[in-house]
Amino acid sequence: MAGVAMGIFGDAAGDEVALADRGVWTEAVVVRMDDSGTNHCDLRAVDGGEITPSLSEGDGCHDWVSKGDRLRVRYDPAGIASPTDDPHGGSDGAFLGTLFAVAVVMGTWGGVRQSRWDRAYDGR
Q: What pTM, to 2 d.p., does this model score?
């Protein structure tokens, strides 16, 4: 479970690092708003350049946003990291470190338990 969570949150942490390294702030126009479940906004820079991937609900595509609205977003010109409207950005580093420690402790504990169980049934 800890490994799965590390994979999920590791992806978000990678986006944060990419935006910190090469992110660019720009004014963007919402060209399409998909609110069929979790909101996603397709954006285009005011100068006409495409911004990919789409902006998710947690990153600034709120319920009040509609087609034609202008948003100030930080995006990755390489199109790898997801854009955001949060100027500070959260950090998943401490959370990922905790998950890694939990995975190591649980793996060690499971190995010790398995070893004891094997010895108990092997007659040693």
A: 0.54
